Structures
1.
Amino acid sequence: MNTLKNANESTPSEVYQAGYREGYRYGGCQAILARIPPQISGKTNIRVLYIPQGFEAIDQGMSDALQQLAAECIIATPDKMLEAARNCRPDLVIVMNGLHVFPADHVAHIRMIRQMGIKTAVWFVDDPYFTDETVELSVSYDVVFTHEQDCVSFYKEAGCSQVYYLPLAVSPNTFAPVRTTIEQQFDICFIGNAFWNRVELFDQLEPFLQDKKVIIAGGHWDRLKRYDQMSRFIRIGWVPVPETVAYYNGSRIVINLHRPTSAGSDNHNGRGLSGSSINPRTYEISACGTLQITDIRSDLLRYYRPGYDIETFQDVGDLQSKIDYYLQHEQERLAIAWRSLWTTRQYHTFVHRVRQLFEFVL
C-alpha cells in the first residue's frame, strides 16, 4: 500500500513531472480563456440593494455582476437592510436566501420595504434542503427565484404570484485557473460536508483510493465507517475559498456528489421535495478547468454534455472505472477539463444570471 508523500519526500523526477504537467494544464486553460470574447453589456437603469447571505463565492459573484449591470448597486448586511432601504430608496431589493444569518424580524422588514413602494425579490439557492423555512418566507416577497426547478410549482402553490427558475452560476473572479504547487496537487479531490450519501460512497471507495493521492475536505467526515483507513486523506473543517480553488486546480479529477434531499438531521425538507437541479460546485469545479465526475441530476444536460465537458457516474463501480480510465488517459482528461472551462465561462457566470433576473423583474 502506498502512502501520500509531501513535497519534501518527492524525488527530483517527481517534482519535475508535476511541474511540467501543471504548466501544460495551466497553459491550456489560458489558451481557452483567450478564445472567449469579453462580456460586453450596458447597464440597466435600475438601482439595486443587495443583501448577501454569507456564501462567499455566491455573494462575490452577485456583487460583481450587479456592479457591472445595474446603474447602482448598494450592499448591506441583513441587519441593516431596512435602514439601507429607507436611506437609499432603491428600485429593487434582492435578498440572497434569507436564511441562517437573517434577523428574526426580517419578514416584517421586507413588508415595510414593500410598503415604501420598493420591489423585493429573494433567490433561494439552498432548495429543496430548507423548504420548511423558505415556504414561510417566500410569500413575503414580490418575486421569488429558486435554483431548483422542482420547487417552482411548490412556491406557486404556497401563494407566490411570481416564481422563476434561475440556475446557479460561478464568479470567474473567484473560481478560475491558477497555478498550483506540488502540495496542492492530487489525483482525486472531494470538498464538501459528509452528508450520509457521501459517507456511503467513500466508505465503498476506501480500498480503491488507498494507492492514490487523495484529499477529502469538509465537516463531519468522522462519520465514515472506515475513518481510520481514510483519515490520512481527510482535512476536517471548512476550507477557505482560495484553498478550494487551489485544490480544484491541482487535482486531476474532482468528484461531485449532490447532497440527498430526504428529510432528516441534514435537511429541513419535511415535504420530501425532489431535487433535479445542479449545485454551485458543478460550475465552480468546471470554472477551474478541471475534470469533474458528478452524479447525475436531470437538469445537468441543460448546461453540460457528459463525455464532452463533464463526466458522470451512476454508481461506485462506474465511478471507479472512470477514475481509472481518466488517470491513464491524460489527453482525454485535459480535453474535457478545458472544454468545461470554455462552457462555464461562456454561459454560466453570475453576469449571465443577473441579466436573466433583470428580464424577469423589469
Note: Confidence is low (pLDDT under 50) at residues 1-8.
2.
Amino acid sequence: MSQEKPIRVLVAGLGNMGRSHALAYHNDPGFEIVGLVNRSTPALEPELQGYTIHPDFATALAELKPDLCSINTYSDSHADYAVAAFEAGCHVFVEKPLATTVADAERVVAAAEKAGRKLVIGYILRHHPSWTKLIEEARKLGPPYVFRMNLNQQSSGPTWATHKSLMRTTSPIVDCGVHYVDVMCQITDARAVEVRGMGLRLSDEIAADMYNYGQLQVLFEDGSVGWYEAGWGPMISETAFFVKDVMSPKGAVSIVMDPNAKSDDIDTHTKTSVIRLHTAETGPDGKFIRPDQDMQMTGEPGHQALCDLEQAFMLRAIREDLNLDRHMADAVASLRICLAADESVRTGQPVRL
C-alpha cells in the first residue's frame, strides 16, 4: 500500500468532525489533501494551516479533480455534494446522517453504484473496539432484546451554538440517533416494523417547528424493542445522560460510564470505561450462579484516533475494493428508522415501516 500513489482528497466542512477527518488524512501517507472547503476561514490546527480553503464545493471539485471527497458539512448538503462527487468520478466519505430524507439517501447509494465508486458513511462506533465487543457480547445473549440508549448533552457557549446550527436542518434524535439505532440493528439483525417518537422544544432560540429534546421507540419483527433519547442545550440534565444497555432473557450487557464524565466532552460520546456482563442464570436456590463480569476497556482510542481508524477503513475500501453493500444498506435503514421517529414526533402517530 505504501508504494501506491496516495489518494487525493478534498475535505468539505471544517467543523469538529471535518477538522478531525482532515487531520486523519494529513497524518496518513495513503492520502494527500488537495484542498479544504469551507464558507468561512475557521481557526485550524497547525498541521492544517498550510492548505488552501476554497469557499465553494462545486468549483473546488471541478478544479482540483480529487479521487475522494470527504463531506463533513451540515446534513442538508450531504446528498447533493455526494452525488456531484460520484458524477465527477470520486469516491465519497460522508458524515452521518447520510441525508435528510430516505429518498436522498437512496439517491446517494444509487449514484455510488452507478459510478462504481466507494461510499463510506461516518458511523464512527463501527470502528471502536469496545463497541464491537458490546455488540459481540449482546449477540451471544440472543434475542429478543430490550435496547435502552441515550446521549443527552448539556451544552452552552460554542457547543450550544453548534447544536443550534445543526437543528436548522436536523433534530437530535436523527443526528445522533442513527449511530445507536445502527448498533441496535447490528445486534438483532431483525427488521424494524414500527417506530414511535415524542419530542419537545425547550428553547426559544430554535425554530418553532424544531425540538431539542426527543425520544424514539422502535419495535422489531423478532419481538425486540428499543428506545433512544437525545437532548441538547443549556437546560439538559447531566443526570443519567449516558445510558447504553442491552437486555435479553439470558442477561444484560451494559456500558458503565465514569461518574465524573461530562456530557459535552466529545470523547465521552465514544469512550466506554467498563463493559458489564450480567448473566441471568440461577441455581437450585434461585440465586445467580455467577457474579457480574466487568471488562475493563483500557487503552481504547479517543476521538481523533477513531477518526484515524475510520479513514484507514476508507483507504482499505478503495485499495482492496471492499464490498460495501451491507454498509450502505445499514446506513439507509438506520436513517429510515430515525426519520420515521421524527415524523411520529410531528404527527403524534406511530409509523409502520
Note: Residues 325-347 form the longest helix (23 residues).
3.
Amino acid sequence: MTAADPVADVGALAEPVERVGRGWTSALSLANGAIWVGWYGPLQILLASQAEDFAPGTGMSKETMLAWVTGAGAVVSLVANPLFGALSDRTTARWGRRTPWIVAGSAGGALSLLLLAGAGGVWRMAAGWCLVQLTLNAAFAAITAAVPDRVPRLQRGSVGGWLGAAQILGVVGGTGLATAAGGVGGGYAACAVFTLVGVLPYVLRYQDLRLPASARPAWSWRMFAASFWLSPRRHPDLAWAWLTRFLINLSNALVLLYLLYYLRDRLHYDDPENGVLILTAVNGVTLLATVVVGGVWSDRVGRRKPFVIWSGVLMAVATAVLSGWQTWPGAIVAAAVLGIGFGVFTSVDFALMTDVLPKAMDRGKDLGVINVANALPQVAAPALAAPIVTYLGGYRVLYLVAAVIGLAGALLVGRIRGVE
C-alpha cells in the first residue's frame, strides 16, 4: 500500500468518506483520457478514411459503410461495459477489483488498434473495431467504477470534471494523433501506444482496494444474468437518469457521426480532415473552460439537476445552429457553444449518476448499465442519421432532429426525485 494512496484503509464496499488527492485524480484522469484516445482517433478520422477507401465496388456508400461498422462496434460496447463492470465487482485478485481489468483492457485495446490498422476490407475493419470496443470497454468500466469506490459524494462533481477534461483531451488528442501521424496505419499505431502508456501511472502508483473472497456473492448464472435488469419501478431515479443521458448522448452522436462528410459534402470545406480537427479543438477549449468549474460549483452548492438541465438546453440550441446556419463560421460557433454545455453536463451528470447507484457491491455493473446510455446512441445514431441524410432532408433536418432529442433529454432530468 503506497503512502500516496489516500483511502487505502477503507473497505472495498464501504461508502468513501476521505477526500482523494490531486495525484490520484490526475492519474485516473490520464488513464481515462488514454482510453478515449483509443476510441476517438478511429471515430473522428481513421474509420471514415477507411470507409472511403473500401466503399467503391461494395455497393455501399461511405456513409452507410461507416454507419454499419460503428454500429456493430457499439453493439459490442452495449454488452461489454456492464459485463466487465460486473466481473470487476466480483474480482478478488491481490491487485484489487479494478486494476486487473484496466491493465488487460488497455493492452488488448492497443493490440486491437494495431490489427485494425492492417484491415484490408470492410469485414476485417468491422471485426477490428468490435475488438477495440470489447477490450477498451473492459478498461473503461473499471476506471469509471473506481470513482464511487474511492471518492466521497461531495467531491464527485470535481473529480467528474477532471475526468471529463481528460475525456475531451483524449478526443482532441486522438483526433490530432490520427491526423498528424501521416496515414491510417501510423494513426492507429500512435493511438495504440498512447492508450497503453497512459494507464501506467495509475496502475503502477496507486494500489486498488481488494475485495475479500468472503464478501463475494455465491456464483449463479441465473442470478448473474438477472442482476443486469434494474427495474425502473424499483429504481425510478436511476431509470430517469439513464434516459436523460441516453437522449443527450444520442443528440451528440448525431452531430459527430457525419461531421467529416458534413464539412466535405455540405459546406464544401477545402480540407475537411483538418476542419474536423479545428472544430474538435474549439469544442475542447470551451469544454475545458467549463467542465471542472461546473463540477466544483455543483459540489459546493450541493445540487446537480439545474446544472444538467441548463447544460442540455444550451447543447440543444447549439445543435440547432448547425441546422439553421450551415456555414463554416456557424460550425465554429456551434462547436464552441456545444463545448460549454457539454463541459458542465459531463462532470455534473457523472456525479448525478453515482448519486443514484443502488448498491456498493454492484457499482461497476450498475455504472456499466448506465454507460449503455453512452454506447446505445452509437447504434441508434447511424440508424437514424443515414436515412435522414440520404432521403429525408439532409443535414439540415438531421441537426434539427438532434436538437429536439437533446432538449427532451434536458427537460426529463426534472423527473429525478431523489437528488436535489
Note: Confidence is low (pLDDT under 50) at residues 1-10.
4.
Amino acid sequence: MSDPTTPEYAAGRDAADPLAGLRDRFVGSETSLVYFDGNSLGRPLRATLDRLDAFVRDEWGGRLIRGWDEGWFDLPLTLGDDLARVLLGAAPGQTVIGDSTTVLLYKLIRAGVDAQLAADPGRTEIVIDRDNFPTDRYVVEGVAAERGLTVRWVDVELAGGVTPDLVRAAVGPATGLAVLSQVAYRSSHVADAATITEIVHDAGGLVLWDLCHSAGAVDVALDAWGADLAVGCTYKYLNGGPGSPAYCYVAARHQDRLTQPIQGWMGHADPFAMGPGYRPAPGMRRYVSGTPAVVGMLAMRDMLALVEEAGMAAVRDKARALTTYAVELFDAWLQELGVTLGSPRDPFQRGGHITLHHPAMRAVTAALWDQDVIPDYRDPDGLRVGLSPLSTSFEEVRRGLEAVRDTLVKVGA
C-alpha cells in the first residue's frame, strides 16, 4: 500500500486530481506558503485583480453615478440569484446580498420570531445549540431579551454537532424558530438539514440555517430541504475578500409574511420617491436596508464563475478527498503525539475542515504562522485545518501537517 506521508504520494494525488489546474488561478498559489485558513478567508482569484482595476477605471471612474441605473442598484438581487443557482439549491427571487452576517441574522431571527408570535403567541422559544458560532448565539440571546422570549439550548458533542434526535428532543409547541448551522464551525460536523428541517416543521417552528461554513464546500439544497430562512458569509469559500457582504435566503412563501426590522430606504417600494412613511418593496428587495456594498460584491462574481465551471459535485468530492487525506496524515503522524481528532471520521459527515486537539495547539499555531504555515486556533486546544477545495493541493496538505508534527514535537520538548 502506498505511504500517504511521502511527497510522491501527494504528488500522485495532485496529478490525478481533475481540479488541480484551477489552483493556479489563485493569487499566491505559486508560493511555498501553506494556507489552512481558507474556511475563514479565501485566497483571491487572479481574475479579480483585473476586475477591480476595470471597475475603478471604467465603471466607477467612467460611468460614475450612472452605474446605479446600469446595474449597481439591482446587483444584490441579480448576484443573489447567481449565488442561489450555483451554490444554494434555490430558485431565483429568494436570495439577496448585503449587510454583514450578524446584521442579516438579526433581521431574519427578529422577522421569524415576530411572525410566529403573531400567528401563535405561545411560540416563545428559540432553539439553538450551545456550540453554534458565537455571533449566532449572541444574536439569539439579544433577540430573545428584546422580545421576551426563552432560549432553548441544545447540548452537543464538541467533536460532533446537531443531530435529528437532539433537535427532536428540543422542539415542541413553544418552538418559534430554530437557528442551526449546517456545518459546525469547530468540528466540521455536517447536519442532516433535510431531516432536521422536517422535524422543526412538524413541531410548528421555522428553521434558519447558517451556511457560513458550508456553501462552497458541501452540498446545499435549500428548496429541496423546505428551508425557511438562511444566512451565510461570502469571504470564506466564496472568496469575496475581507468584509465582503453576507447573503440571506427567504423562501418565497414567507417573503411577504415576514417583516424585517431594519427599515431602510433601499428596501422601500419606491426608494427614490423619498416620501413619508415606509412601505416595503415586494419580494426580496424588502430585505435590503441601506446602500449595497458594490465594491464588496465584485470578487465573489469570479469565484461563482469558477465553481460553476468546476461543478459543485466535483468541488464537494475534492473537499472530501482533502479532508480524508488530512485524517490519514493525522493517523500516521499526530495520533501518537497525543493529538485527538475533533471532527467526524466519516467524510460524508464532515465539511471542508478538520480540527486537531492538543494542549499545546495555541503555541503550535503561533509558531506555525512564523513559518508561513497558516491554520487557525479555536478553544479548547483546537488547531483548525481549513482546506478550501479549489485553492488547496494535496502536497500543501502534506507539507502543512508535517510542519504541525515537527512544531508540536519542538513545542512539547
Note: The chain has twelve helices and 13 strands.
